[in-house]
Every structure is written in C-alpha cells, then in structure tokens.
Specification:
This protein is an all-alpha fold and 461 residues long. The chain has helices at 27-53, 55-62, 68-93, 95-113, 121-135, 137-142, 144-151, 157-166, 168-181, 185-208, 255-270, 273-294, 296-300, 307-334, 339-361, 372-387, 389-400, 406-427, 433-451; strands spanning 2-4, 222-226, 233-237. Helix 7 packs antiparallel against helix 8 and helix 15 (339-361) packs antiparallel against helix 16 (372-387). It is globular, with a radius of gyration of 22 Å. It starts with a strand and ends in a 10-residue tail after the last helix.
Amino acid sequence: VRFNNSDEAPSSSSAMSAEDDGPQFHLWRRWWVLFVFSALNAAQCFQWITFGTVSDLAKSVYGYDLDINLLAAWGPIMFIPFVFVSGWLLDYFGLRVTVVMGAVLVAAGGVVRCLTDVTPAAVWLIHIGQILNALAGPVVMETAPLLSAVWFPLNQRTLATAVACQAFNLGTCVSFFMSVVLTKPSQLLIMLRLGAIFSLLVLLGAVAYFPSKPPSDSGDRRRLITNVEDGTPTFVPDEKPLLGAPTIEIAAESKLDQAKQFWRDCLALVKKPAFVVVALSYGSTSGVISGWQAVLVPILEPLGYSQMQVGYMGLGAAALAFAIAPVAGRISDWCRRRTKPVYLTLYTVTCILITVFCLLTGNYFDVGKGWQWLVYVSSIGAVAVLNLVTPVVFELAVDITIPITESTSCGMLVLLNNVACLAFLLAGEKLNPYALNWSVLATTAIVLVAMTFLRSSYRKV
C-alpha cells in the first residue's frame, strides 16, 4: 500500500496529508510508531545473535555440544517459508496486527529461553526460543518501507526507513557489549532475562498504541491500489469521507482475490530484470555479511583473536552503523534521483575495507601491534557501511516496482537476504576462516560490478 496526495482531492483545512507537517498530522504519533518498531527490530536481532557473540560462555554453561551455528541459522531457516505469510498479513491486516503479532513472538521467544539453565531442558528451550524469535524476522525485516510510506512525508521516508532498518544494530550493539563485559556463567542467564523483559516492554508499547495508519478526519487521503484484472494502478479514497461528503463505493476484494493478487505481484517481480539485479545484489551481500557477523567470534578465534577483541569489533560496527544511518538516510532523501551513485559508493568503500581486513587477518605478511588498529577500523567500517545499503536499496526497489506494494517487493529482498545468510552459515561448517573472510569480499565485488549496469529513475510520488 502506498499513500499519496491526489490533485483531484478536495481541499480542506482539516485535511491530513503525508506531505503536510501541520498539527493534524500528529507528529508525536509518527515518531512513537517509529520508536516502537525500531525497538522491536532491536529486540529481535539481540535474541537472534546472542549466542554467537558469547559462544565460549554459552558452551561453558550449556555444554560444548551446543551448536552455535544452528542457533543463528534458525533465523533464515524459519524466515524463508514464512516471509510470504508476513507479506500477506501486511497487505490484508495492516501494520498494527502484523507488528503486534511479531512482538508477541519475540517476547515469547525471549521468555522461553530464560526459564532455566539446567541442561538438557535449557538447550531445548533455547532452540524453541530461537525458532519463535525467528518467526518474527519477516515482520521486522520487510515492514520498514511500508511504515515510512504510510506515516512519513516524502522528504523523510528514506530517513525513516534508515532508522527502522538499522535499529537492529542496537540489538547487535548490546549483544557484542555483553560479550565484552560478561565473565561469569551466572551472568549469562541474567542477560537473557533482561532481554526478555525488554521484549515484553516492546510488546506492551505496541499493544498500547500502534495504529495501521495515521488518524484522519477527512477523505482527502488516497490509496494506490492495483486492478486485479489488468494490473493498472488507481487512486481511491482510503478513509471514510466526512458526513455529507460524496462517497465512492468500492467492492471489497475477497481473500482469494487478494491471495491471487499477492502471487501475481510476486511473479511480476521475477519478470522485472532491474528488480532481479537489485534483489540478488542486496540479498547476497547483506545475507553474507549478516551471517558473517553472527558467527564472527568462531571465525576469528582460530586466527588468534579473543572473544573480547571480536566483541569490540562487532560493538563498534553496530554502533557506527546505527549512528550514521539517519545521516545516510537524510543524504539519500536529498539525492532522491541519484540513488544508484549512493549505492555504488557504499559498495566500493565496503570492498576496499574488506580487502584490507582479509589481508591483515590472513597472515600474508607480518602485522605488528602497531597495525592492529587497522584490523578494527576495516572490520568496523565494512560492516557499518554495508549496513547502510539497506534503506537505500529498499527505496530503490520500491521505486522500480511501482505499483507493487512495498511489503511484497521488500519481502522478496529480505527473502534472498536470508537464503544467502543460511548458505553462509551452512558453509561455515565446512570452510576454514580464511575462505569465509574472502567469500565476503568476493560477494561484494561481484555485486559492485553487476550494479554498475543497473539503470534506475526515481518515480515514487
């Protein structure tokens, strides 16, 4: 669903427009909705990545047969079949129902994980908690563009998308921070319980106030729908008009019609070459870097880096990515018709930083202590910069797939993201750390070359 103002709409002093920052738009509500969703994103990511950042401590508590890679892999494993369910929920039930359902799953997963630390029951409960949390993954990963389109004016949408998408880095920050400060096994259960309390507070906030769209007292808001028969876009009134105003009756689509339209949209996406390039590019690089970050401790420990050192790398990367996400989003808003140059710049910088990291950690030449800072800078910078691609590519994908809804187009993006993440985590069981590091660089470089041939024009209104 994409909201827009229509030139034919009747003017009214009480009209609430996505382009109008007047008092009727209720600014605090807009930012509260963004805050709650961002908190949900952070909570979900914290629970997903928890055990990968404190792998040594977790194995000392639950046993050394605890499969850290599998705990991380539950995210993409459950995401792949349920991403289509999430997209359909967003289209049919709207933001509120879908986000509240996601918050319930994250809270349930957080509570289940900290019920006990006595094995083997604790290990089973941890896996159940990871699965429940993973079911909420499609919600937090594909909802941001729709939320920004519904709640924010055009000149703030990429900013809102950037904040909502990059909020997961707050959860990553906390998780890597825990890997630095946690030293005793008893502290691990305390951390899990604090995470569960936070997820319950997020659920409370979503239930308290999280409407599907801004409140309105006029019929001036209009909705872009797609004709089921021929696929043509049409603007129709979205809110019930004021009493006495002319009305337009629209036949409601049946659930079967909506389901058919959803699958038609998915098929239409596959037939768009520009979208296929963007989706494969984003999905492969973002998925690989997510999987790499989730198991960074097991990857770098054989190369001589301690859990604390890797914790500082992950903490720095996540903190930097979230800190500069609003700036990058704002810059992208200013350069709305130059999305491709922004995209290519981010990938070029990432390739350079990953190359430096691979060379320094690959024992190709002696790296003294005086150069250790460059290892931190390259790893932190690569993850942070590549994470900034997400809001830019979401906006680019929505642009080139008009009039298909944001939930459908972005759902396909994050589906490929999770496929690549799962592939990387499975490969992590077979490949050595050097090969895993170089695979991140190879994926990014291939995408950079492919994206140079993409043509895009910003058509969103």
